[in-house]
Amino acid sequence: TPYVLSLGVDHQLDQRWNLMLEARRTGWSSFDEMRIRFDNLLQPDSVTDEKWHDSWSYGLGASYKACQRWTWRVGLCREESPIPTQYRTPRIPDSDRSWYAFGASYQPRKGLRWDFGFSHLTFDNAPIALALADTGNAFRGQLEGDFTTSINLIGVQVESEF
Question: Helix %, strand %, coil % for the chain, to 5?
């Protein structure tokens, strides 16, 4: 797994508002290749050159304590893809992405809290152009195309003290 270096700031503006900032560097350059070794010794390894590079992400968020029971949250993040275009594959058609998130906490009583969250991720267009002559493509063939991706994430959590 790559290293992750994160710097974050959480600043309470007043009794209701918090502002959060984060910058994160992920050391993906340690991921050079994906190698699959087969039990059959006559079958060569399947090797995909990755050659990923380190990437950055930047986020901004805010929370608002509406009352004793409810807290609302919103956030934005921009994240760079670690995958150079020439190494993008259909296995991982990654590209730069934007995160849009909101959530809430509901605390009906002391020692019990419900958290709800929703994030929508949009990915930039991800062209793929793998040539037959590229390393590892002799048996896979040539592939050209575009990926358009979006993801929705939903989270629910209950925290209870006994």
Answer: 5, 60, 35
- pTM equals 0.80
pLDDT by residue for the chain (162 residues), tens only, comes to 899 999 999 999 999 999 999 999 999 998 888 888 999 989 888 887 788 999 999 999 999 999 999 999 999 999 999 998 877 888 788 999 999 999 999 999 999 999 999 999 999 998 887 777 766 666 667 778 888 899 999 999 999 987
Single out the residue of 123, 59, 119 nearest to residue 88, CA to CA.
123
- Tokens 């710097």 belong to 7
Task: Output phi, psi for 52, to 5 deg.
Answer: -70, 160
Tokens of 40: 């059959």
Query: How is residue 45 written in tokens?
Result: 């390894």
The amino acid at 57: S
Residue 142 CA to chain centroid, in angstroms? 28
CA atoms within 13 A on the CB side of 73: 17
29 neighbors 56 (Cβ within 8 angstroms):
no
Answer for the pair 136, 47: CB distance below 8 angstroms, yes or no: yes
